[in-house]
Amino acid sequence: MDPSLQFLLAVAIIIVAAKSAGYASTRLGQPAVLGELLVGVVLGPTLLDMLHWSVFSDPHLGEALNHLAHVGVLFLMFVAGLEVEPGEMLRAGRPAVLAGAAGVIVPVMLGIGVALPFGFGLEGGLFMGLVLAATSVSISAQCLMELGVLRTRECVALLGGAVVDDVLVIVLLSLFVAFAGGGGAGAWTVIWVVVKMAAFVVVGVGLGMVLVPRLTDRVSGLPVSEGLMALVVVVTLLYAWAAEALAGMAAITGAFIAGLLFSRTRARQRIETGMHTLAYSWFVPLFFVSVGLKANARALGVDDLPFAVLVLAVAVVSKVIGGWIGARLGGLSSAQALRLGVGMVSRGEVGLIVASVGLAAGLIDDAIFAVVVLMVLATTILTPIMLRVLYSEVANSGGMGKLGVQNTGAKDT
Q: What domains are defined for the chain?
């Protein structure tokens, strides 16, 4: 079969499976994203191994789907940024910074502690700590949007803390890579990384606050079919590209910033409607399913299971504790801090990026990489379940009103 026809069939199967599983999940009282993640596991190499069916002979099919999934997570984070008021982000500055910092420090320390007894040297232990320190709130953001609580104080602090976490992990990873081999230019390398990040935030946000509203008003009046949405897509992709290619940050951070910038425009509602249709019709479901497609439990041997279970336990506990400590120091209540900590548990694509660096550098082998992938998948699945439970308790106690939550309606993925 022609590769393009294989691609069309694969996308159709994934979207149908994702939407069906999402619907079933909501019928069972769980977030739609949970069903889409689980159906990815079913379609992946752990069970059905969809990409190796006889009808899919194109060796580049998986790569093509990954590219679309990457666009999906960028659009997801753009929508999250679009729904947050920039002023709210600034007011959440202190708890966001402290939660992001503690959400890195605690996992690194516990990661070293869990790795050393399994034969890792100090260098390998530090790297495992960095893998556990990574976080990606794209899944949490989707779940919180479905629950209608994304604009609560702790959720806004969660989004800001994820940006801080991303910056710290990238800096520490750069430091680790620079000094692991004893390179003398390591310090300058790290300084340069920090400078690039700071320049991106200052220049990108500064220019965006001036240019994005003007461009939006200008393009909205042009006689061009869907010119406004074209502008939104271009700016989102450029910010995502610049964040990773120029500043060394995760691309999702750039997409999130782009969403914040467009949230200040007069066309915010039009943009939200258009982006929701574009993203949730197929890009975002492809992303959720792709997480499961990467997981292969068959790669693990029996001897690897104790380590895998311990890594998963530490992955959950370390983020909850770290986020809770930072949020409490930042002035949030104990319950708010717990919800923030749980929201940081998912590792997502950021954890996979860090693990890929270690695999390429020979710091971890294929079996340990499989453990990391399964940890990423498990934390991604557990996070929406735990958030649903925590916010259900708040709703049952009448606490939603106290939080000032305005439920805008669940967003079906």
A: 3-397 (1.20.1530.20)
